[in-house]
Amino acid sequence: MKVLVQISAQYYENYAYFNGGQSWKPKGEQTFEMKVDDDWFLYHEAECVSAIKQILSNQSNSACKFEYVSHELVFCDPISISEEDFESVLEPILKEKYRVNETESQA
Q1: Of 102, 19, 32, 22, nearest in space to 62 by CA
Q2: Which of 22, 23, 86, 97 is geometrically suited to a Cys-Cys bond with 15, CB 3.0 to 4.6 A?
Q3: Whole-structure pTM value
Q4: Distance separating alpha carbons of residues 52 and 7, to the nearest angstrom
């Protein structure tokens, strides 16, 4: 079965690139995705990680590079949560938090 593989990599920039040197600084996460047969990861995970590391190395150059952090197999589509649903749950939580803090400071 084909499965989505999400790969997390650390993104680095070479701040000394224009001076011909190397001064790598982490700049955040970069996500890579691929669809592959899940059997590869279920039976040969270590080899798959080695292949991913090589692919990330091939994506890198003297100005920026990617370093493998982790991967995840995604077997189903994500379920979206609307902004309205999120806010309708968050607002009472925040009101309660600040009501309690207000009450404590008045005492």
Answers
A1: 22
A2: 23
A3: 0.74
A4: 8
